[in-house]
Specification:
- About 50% of the residues lie in helices and about 0% in strands.
- It has about 140 residues and is mainly α.
Length: about 140
């Protein structure tokens, strides 16, 4: 099969690549003093698996993701431009650390940037709870 006929998922190396990249990425998210505040009630492995399933589907792989859309999953989080940029930086670092080829890294980052509009909010007033007990997550950047 010619490279042009392969899906992005196949060109990346399939689930193995996504799993390894997401392990590196979530290690960075959970280590970051600001980002980790958004994940205190979520086991890292569960998020890694969900992200892998979601991105596999987006990239043309198996359709195993059964969770919420990015907008719905993050509706209770005040994700600012700065926070989104930090996330993108950590993802880019993760892709480099994994050793992904520059062209594939660029394509991944472009695909990821497409979710910005669904995630970033101008103010905490744009946040919504999916149920009455769900907290609105709004954290200032630590010094």
């Amino acid at each position: 099969m010619a490279t042009i006929d392969k899906t992005f998922f196949e060109r990346l190396g399939g689930l193995k690549t996504l799993e390894q990249v997401h392990k590196i990425f979530y290690d960075k998210l959970y280590a970051d003093q600001w980002m980790r505040l958004f994940f205190t009630d979520k086991p890292q492995q569960v998020l890694e698996e969900q992200q892998t399933d979601f991105m596999a589907q987006i990239f043309g792989g198996p359709k195993r993701y059964a969770g919420k859309s990015p907008k719905m999953a993050h509706q209770h989080m005040h994700i600012t431009e700065e926070l989104f940029h930090l996330r993108q930086t950590l993802l880019n670092e993760s892709l480099k650390e994994y050793g992904l080829a520059d062209d594939l890294r660029k394509e991944w980052m472009e695909a990821d940037a497409n979710f910005k509009r669904a995630l970033v909010k101008k103010s905490v007033d744009e946040c919504k709870q999916s149920n009455p007990s769900q907290a609105i997550l709004d954290f200032e950047k630590p010094n």
